[in-house]
Amino acid sequence: MGENSTYDEVDIFNAVIAASTKTTSINQICNSTENTPSDSAIRNRLDQLTMEDLEQALNQMLQIHSQHTLNPGKYHFAIDLTTIPYHGTHYQEEREITRCKAKRGTTHFHAYATIYLIQRNKRYTLGLKFVYSDEKHPEIIDHLLAQIKALNLGVRALYLDKEFYTVEVINHLKEQRIPFIIPVVPRGRKGGGIRKLYKGRESYSTTYTMTSHKNQTKATFQVNIVVKYYKGKYGEKGIEYLGYAVYGLDLPVKRTYQEYRKRFGIESSYSLMNTTRARTSSRKPTIRLLYIGISLLLSNLWIYIKWTYLSQRRKGGRKPPNWTYETMVGMLTIALDRILKPILRLKTYQPWTGLEIATLRSKPPS
Length: 366
What we know:
Elements: H1 9-21, H2 26-31, H3 39-46, H4 51-63, H5 66-69, E1 73-85, E2 98-103, E3 106-118, E4 125-131, H6 137-149, E5 153-160, H7 167-175, E6 180-183, E7 204-211, E8 218-229, E9 239-247, H8 255-260, H9 265-275, H10 285-310, H11 325-340, E10 345-349, E11 356-361
Parallel strand pairs: 1-5, 5-6
Antiparallel strand pairs: 1-3, 2-3, 3-4, 6-9, 7-8, 8-9, 10-11
């Protein structure tokens, strides 16, 4: 900030948080409030962010609340990739854009990876990374695991999405002796590959060797085949086979399905993220990453407040309160309105004279 600046970093941060809680843009917030800098002033400051510094700062912010509520030790974690549709060309490098199956009228996306703590009442997002299209999955995993190692946290088990079902990832995790569960992905012709293990009427465990078509490297691992019966669910009947690559975990085969379901909390974190993610038309990946990180930070804040200040102590553990994420966001919105002061009047002018002809006032918020 310059010495003659009439605003500071708090003013910018308040505007960004307001855009997040109202799921709108910085431009809209600045044009509808009195105590905010101009949208161009904020954009000029945000444009100075670099990807490396921003990722480091966001990860430090995401870890603040967990440091006060988690004890050192081993925990269960989930790692996942999420994509946000992007309409337009890349900003600086083509690898900023990840190509995926068409969604919302585009095959171009910005991709993000997160690591998520699976712990009752303390489901924090502890790491965030912008993913370039040419980055390898083992590199992404190592980057996210480095975030939890800095907190003196270990991995009891790692739950990965099916996109990580590759020879490179499986061998990489086995070399580091990190226990994991990854759903298998049937590939190739019908009845071939891992599909030949989908047989019988009882769940069972076996060993399977997968070969990479890129470099012909191999990975041998344990596969748990879980047999489930539809019993009319989804209007279907018969048998459903679910396969999981498992390493370093001693659990009954039938329990593999229920164990892996623990990771679906990370999908809920993405749902919350999208309800408080500021919108932008900027092509800069740093700006979009900032809004993703701020939204995940709000989710962590909600979890921290519930556990630290609102939960009731009782025998067998604390009782979490019925305090929803929407309630917290609503309270933040009210508090920010008091600070930023929404414009409650609108002056109208005659276009040919420039004279004021009326002042429209809106009812102030209760």
